[in-house]
């Protein structure tokens, strides 16, 4: 090593792009490299190979980490002890149980907490007044760990923020207390579809309360711009980013109209995005968010400041069946948040889709971050994805697509007006429906659900809930203590269609639920006979494909004791299986010679419906299953034939 560097490529033969393209063509049996391209939900092309020419780094205006316009993050050197804030969410309805969970998790590595507040206790901690909040936060040191709020339901928002502010006054030393009040009227409209008293009155309260809280708690942030509802409703990356920017701009306009100094907005706001399991795309999304925000600040002639970004692992990607795979999904989302430069990372519990998480769910959530931070060292380098041709190029393309979304929302009168008119919801619905169609055809696979399902998988634990809340609203005592002289300007409620959250596994989970209920009633699961033709080498691939597809709908595949050699033996094996339907599996050449006879023998033996794995058509074949077919539709047909009842 004459130059002093270890040449890692020294043991490999020299290769160039032409060699790679030639190898790809051979692997694809003559197909071009374009077959490896993929499209995002926004129509952006993901190429199999990126070159230096795809990203003009020489003329790149992004600067260095920690330098304006902060496109590469707020810090030039990550904190050696805590490169990002490990923020854990808490949603157990019982304030006493939540308190115990908070204290335990803070002892075990969580650096800040986020209380999901819903006074009814149906979707978060049942905080209704100062007493219940004090119960939830007993023993918590806000000078050491930030306390953040996640306002889940109606009656939340400024009222809960006021309660937290009142609690802070009781702690003493307000200059050192770290809060994230996360007041977000627009986010409340996105989630619930209603702002009681009207959006204008809500912003009058928000503007004045934010101003007072800034003075009282200098280490706190008071506002939030949250685009997670767009993601969780099935929106695309560009729709989520565009809505985030529209959210910020609409909020600043309304705050300014209420007398708020919008120069304070950037430093007082936490920007929150969801993170899915496609970490390459999610890293680019976080980088695109900083590009977009810098452009917004420039356009509004505001001082360029770094945005505080929170990345929260996606709820829509979590599955109820085979939930253990959610640990892998969460790990990918955590990686994206860390490498993408999020200031705050929240990882959901892997069992959240099943109910309220218990200790195992919260432990794996926090340890995912701790391992990523302390063992994998993800936070040791500032902007590790900087200069990566794929990430830089995709971030630019995402920013462009998101800017178009933002401009469209602006042309509709801003985010609130677009929501009131139902225009943004309609576009998100189109994206959601296209996404579900792709999932149904398994073009977007869901491991453990649409692919490689486990019919006898082990269940994951959830918390046992014994707490009930009778509250329907949050006390205004905290708010009134800070806004004594604020006149009541409430008017008619602002209403819009809420962005209802989805889960990507919805359709397959519905099928599994029906199959499970059928098994409980009948004492055995619904089943299909795997009718194989020819030797194992010929039918094995398609038989495995068929078992996997039908298992995704809770339908068990039953094989013959040995490979049937004649249609008559096949028919006898079908009768012995006790099944009512069958799927024929074999090679295309054998289908030409035997499929019709096999189908006739199965029908004569009592088969009410026959599927065939492949696209070969013959008399007696009722349906074909193949790569790209609508698996949900085929499974619904199979279940209906088997008498599986709809819920």
UniProtKB/TrEMBL annotation:
Keywords: Cobalamin, Cobalt, Isomerase. PANTHER family: METHYLMALONYL-COA MUTASE, MITOCHONDRIAL (PTHR48101:SF4), METHYLMALONYL-COA MUTASE, MITOCHONDRIAL-RELATED (PTHR48101). SUPFAM superfamilies: Cobalamin (vitamin B12)-binding domain, Cobalamin (vitamin B12)-dependent enzymes. The lineage of its organism: Bacteria, Pseudomonadati, Pseudomonadota, Alphaproteobacteria, Hyphomonadales. InterPro entries: Cbl-dep_enz_cat, Cobalamin-bd_sf, MeMalonylCoA_mutase_a/b_cat. Belongs to the methylmalonyl-CoA mutase family. Its cofactor is adenosylcob(III)alamin. GO terms for molecular function: cobalamin binding; intramolecular transferase activity; metal ion binding. Pfam families: MM_CoA_mutase. Residues 40-455 form the Methylmalonyl-CoA mutase alpha/beta chain catalytic domain. It comes from the Bacteria. This is Methylmalonyl-CoA mutase.
